[in-house]
Amino acid sequence: MLFIGDDWAEDHHDVELQDETGRKLASARLPEGVEGIAKLHAIIARHGGEDLEPGQVTVGIETDRGPWVQALVAAGYRVYAVNPRQAARFKERYGTSGAKSDKGDAHALADMVRIDGAQLRPVAGDSDQAQAVRVVARAHQTLIWERTRTFQRLRNTLREYFPSALTAYASLELTSTDALELLVKAPTPAQAAKLTKSQITVVLARHRRHRRDQRAAAIQAALREPQLGVAAPVAAAYGAAATAHARLLIALNEQIAVLEEQVSAHFHAHPDAEIYLSMPGIGEITGARVLAEFGDDPTRYTSAKARKNYAGTSPITRASGRTHAVQARYTRNNRLADALQRQAFSALNASPGARRYYEKQRARDAGYNPALRQVGNRLVGILHGCLKTRTLYDEATAWSHHAALPVTT
Fold it and tell me: What pTM, to 2 d.p., does this model score?
């Protein structure tokens, strides 16, 4: 057996090679790309001998994606994606001074996969289609998060000099493209007060808004309401800042719509899409996000409990002496947790069984979020069974042992 610690950077990798006893066999700094991976194979061949099988080489690295990781997996090596937090805690055993070096990190990673390999999770062997879904689903969600942050900046800016805009465009939602276009057209209170009803109606018509005349009249009236103002030069400066945020939001809206089509296309091309869509509370986007984070490696989750633990929906127990507490998991995959929370919320209306199970948790004095998290935990277990048996979701089968529970009206 050979154990390799790989401390990666943007343009190079520091690696250390150890044998089963922890003896250092080699260390090197390798360039990123084909040249670097070829040199790594050569080092392994030189120290492993002709009889060494690829499965006898274990690599620890603090990432689970990228061409380098894919090349290691393709070579047949056992690759462990080490959580940076786990690696930092492991390195504390070497000293408390806080000293750090790339070579030292590579040494610690090699020790970690050699000593604690049984506690680590190997990189999943997801299919190419699952990886494609992951790329577009994460990009789509990241743009939505970025839109939310940009909107908060725009909202704070408007509150400082043009609060009536928040009231005027509330019926359209300020993140909508037509509201943003009106803001770009008239970014200051003085300019907005001069907007005519026909100018507003043209923008609303371009975006196919209903009741355009009534909406335009209400927006015009709100923009002409008296308000506390700032000096003209200050208002112009704020207007420039608001225009920049508004144009960025318009671009984000456009790209989010484009990526949403890509998410749908890649998701429907995956063979598991039908199973995911049969689950209650899941649509195309949520289903794609859940599939992207779970992956489709059939050997990754040995049981429903393992899938629930990875999802972060199952609770953890803290027991020490006379103290015994059951708590929610807060260290988890936030993208997956967000998608499962959305699914559980929607399932309360889509599935009578999920609603009964939720009411049962509330009857036990569980709060809203803990009860919803338990519904999500149950749905993850049902999903695991459907994927394992390659069957679609069935309401009667999934909640058969909860059928006698009454539903609170």
Answer: 0.82
